[in-house]
Structure prediction request, 176 residues.
Amino acid sequence: MTERQGLPPERASPSSIEAPPIAIAILVEAGEWPGEDVLAAMAKAALAAAVDVLALEIGEPPELSLVFTDDAHIRELNAAWRDKDKPTNVLSFPLVAMEPGAPLPPMLGDIVLACETVGREAEAEEKPFEHHLAHLIVHGFLHLLGYDHETDQQAGEMEGIERRVLAELAIPDPYR
Prediction:
């Protein structure tokens, strides 16, 4: 795997990040991921920025899980749930079907990320691993909230939100 550059220090330090109003469970299942403290800091920053950009009203913090795995496991999930027998970068499993803007349920669901695919894509696109990973966490979170990219209109809306969230994290436009 290539050398990884971190987020700006003010975003990367767990002690400097205000906890997002979302409870996050992290499971590092497989793969050569950064340490769990780094993953937690990135997830907190990405989700807090998404909550801010979307102006989500949150009472009791909803919960979600982030599973950091490898290509082999995500390939199995992709085959079982999407009939696509290949690895992918991120899969989202909402606990309940939502429409964008709907009130948040207590449990949002799971986001699963594949280390090798994330690394290959970041390298191919010449972007820091952590920037690409933050983008995919945001992308997966938006899927949990009911956003999709099946049509050009949906894709445009979702990409616009992703751009605004990543700009809050000082991450360049991933679609450029």
